[in-house]
Design a protein that fits this description.
Pfam families: 2OG-FeII_Oxy, DIOX_N. The chain has about 350 residues and is α+β, with helices and mostly antiparallel strands. The protein contains nine helices and 16 strands. The protein has one domain: Sandwich (Jelly Rolls), CATH 2.60.120.330.
Length: about 350
């Protein structure tokens, strides 16, 4: 079993002020300083529906990223999820060992320092991945870690309202684009909801590596609980936006499947995770996606009248096969699926 950064590998390196060579990115891929002062929009979902719909669509078109508050996910569910995830990564390595796996096809697992593209570099992060179908079943929960003892209960109480928020945001986007409100309900969101709990231990030299390199997401929509430690950056006009933590907010962004389904009206934007040398950072990313056999293509309502289809229809299984082959950079993914 490869050592977890949070258990010994990264901690030992950090204590010695050394960054192992496998984590050092080539000079042209290292994190340059951000110079932009642009901030992500913060949208209050409790406002008038017409105003909220307009704000969500405009933010999605302009930046592909925004933050939402007053979103309906109980604050207690958010705080409990953050706390139990930090508690999980704080456990001794031997207690986490049984859940560790390098098998990428395993939906529930703990893994570390994934290889970056084909260059051999690794990300400075550990990740706990949990999969959940709906409604949540007892069988599903038995595949989640049984330690800490309250993890399963807390995760379910977080999964359910967070998925509900994702569905509501998709309804707002559908209404704003002239689609029927439930366009994305059904097959397009019938797959498992995946949660990645990303843990970034203190890094001995953040200037040489990244927690996650620039990438676009593979799913429909992502909801990120980023905690109170800065780390997320979003690509914007050739620079990087620092996403400042907002209390009780979710950061929302679109996956490439949503870009295909909306015929390019909404964009999947590259983002990355920075590291720091002082404190650990833990974030909780919730991904909504279709089942593997679902066919995803541009909505008929968004094609025609001088607006031809920009992307070919593809099953999610085929999309994932190609996504993993070409890498997660936006240019590569777009080239693979654009007509």
């Amino acid at each position: 079993m490869e050592k977890l950064l949070s258990s010994s590998g990264g901690a030992a390196a950090a204590s010695q002020g050394q960054l192992p060579d496998c984590f050092v990115f080539p000079a042209d891929r290292r994190p340059p300083a951000s110079s932009t002062a642009v901030s992500l929009p913060v949208i209050d979902l409790s406002g008038p529906r017409d105003d909220v719909r307009r704000a969500v669509l405009e933010a999605g078109k302009e930046l592909g990223f925004f933050q939402v508050v007053n979103h309906g996910v109980p604050e207690q569910a958010m705080r409990d999820m953050e706390a139990v995830c930090e508690e999980f990564f704080g456990m001794p390595a031997e207690e986490k060992a049984a859940f560790y796996s390098d098998a990428e096809d395993k939906p529930n697992r703990l893994f570390s320092s994934t290889i970056y593209e084909v260059g051999g570099q690794r990300y400075w992060r550990d990740c706990l991945r949990l999969a959940c179908g709906f409604p949540v079943s007892d069988d599903t929960k038995t595949h989640w870690p049984d330690k800490p003892h309250r993890l399963r209960e807390v995760a379910e109480k977080f999964f359910v309202p967070t998925r509900r928020l994702g569905i509501e945001l998709l309804r707002l986007l559908s209404e704003g684009m002239g689609l029927r409100p439930d366009y994305f309900e059904g097959d397009l969101t019938a797959g498992d909801v995946i949660i990645n709990v990303n843990h970034y231990p203190p890094c001995p030299d953040p200037s040489l590596t990244l927690g996650l390199p620039p990438h676009c997401d593979r799913n429909l929509i992502t909801l990120l609980l980023q905690g109170d430690v800065f780390g997320l950056q979003v690509s914007y006009k050739g620079d990087w936006i620092n996403v400042e933590p907002v209390p009780n907010a979710f950061v929302v962004n679109f996956g490439h499947l949503l870009e295909i389904a909306t015929n390019g009206v909404l964009k999947s934007i590259e983002h990355r995770a920075m590291t720091n040398s002082v404190v650990a950072r833990t974030s909780v990313a919730t991904f909504m996606m279709p089942p593997m056999d679902c066919l995803v293509g541009p909505a008929r309502e968004l094609v025609g009248g001088g607006n031809p289809p920009q992307y070919r229809a593809v099953t999610f299984r085929e999309f994932m096969r190609i996504y993993k082959t070409v890498g997660a950079r936006r240019e590569s993914v777009e080239k693979a699926f654009k007509i």
